[in-house]
Design a protein that fits this description.
- A hairpin with a 3-residue loop joins strand 14 and strand 15.
- The radius of gyration is 22 Å and the shape is globular.
- It is mostly beta strands.
- Helices cover 6% and strands 65% of the residues.
- It is built from three helices and 18 strands.
- It has a 16-stranded antiparallel barrel with strand order 2-3-4-5-7-8-9-10-11-12-13-14-15-16-17-18.
Amino acid sequence: MHNRITGILLLAIVMHTSVLYAGLFAKGSVTSGYLSNTYLDASAQWDVGIHPALELEVDFAEMWAVGYNGRMEAYTRHTELFYHEHELYVLANPRFGDDDQHDLFVMAYLGTGKNTDTFESVNLLYPGLELSLGLEPNSVVYWKTSASLEYRGYYSYTANSSLDTWLQTAVTFSMPSKTSITPRVAWGYRFYPAPEALTDEPWDMQLKPGVRLAQGLGDDSGLWVDYEYLYTFNDNNMVVGQLTSAEANFAGMEFLYSGHGVSLGGKRLWGAHFEGTLEVTYQRRLYNGFILVDDTGVSTGESREDSRIIAGAGLNYERAFGSKKQNTFLLGFNYEYLRQLSNDAWYDTDSHSIQLQLALSH
């Protein structure tokens, strides 16, 4: 059995193709990877996942585009996790300034996500709008601000339907020493408009300030450190209402926890074709509304708290070919280990993931 699992693991492949012709852009991918702990809990159930995706886009009038995004998640052992998502969009991305250094991005989209009957509570339809503005007044400063509005309409459990708003801004300062620092802040607000609101406070709100420091080392390597603080103002309404932990994870991680995280990473190029990365991350999470219970099923009154340590490494080989170097071949290997320390014994666990990637683009 061990040899069989190892053989499946070595077949984990990502195939990626893209075509750009007469304003039509098509991009397809199939990702397969091995996980040692699918649900990230004490059950420690392994699986091999297959994730195909497709993107189609038609560009016209230099700044306009319409397109489609679709993806699917399927697993060889846990068929209840089958999921597919489809999205249609229209966007405009005009540039302006003396050297076209500034840009405006506007996109409207309509998407839908469908799960199996096990997770039908998080099937949804989500129309939305996105707007961002990027300004580069000089070679030192780049400022970007964005806003988004999305309605998340759940088919079965309408009490979970929400209107989500996010406002974000970040400023990057780039120095001649190849040092850059990017402070940022994001604010999110989720309102539940249904009459059968889940709690007396039918809203969730989160604040996410952070900063990233990067340092280039010559022309072929660099280091970075990133810190983010998350503050959630109340217990998550969807969790307090009726969703289980697994269902809430499918609904997205926004507004689920408070805490902070820091990551340290590095990248190194060898020649023109090899690239290696290393990254270590620590996260502290307080899940608002996930109340623990004892062995008899009685609430302890305590919320779930996790500490995560994540270590990952990757090595890619990339080469352009063709008469005009219009094609790209990529072969990559990625490994990640996650140790989760939790005050809930069921979630005090770890996981390994290994992925072999093969990509071809045109």
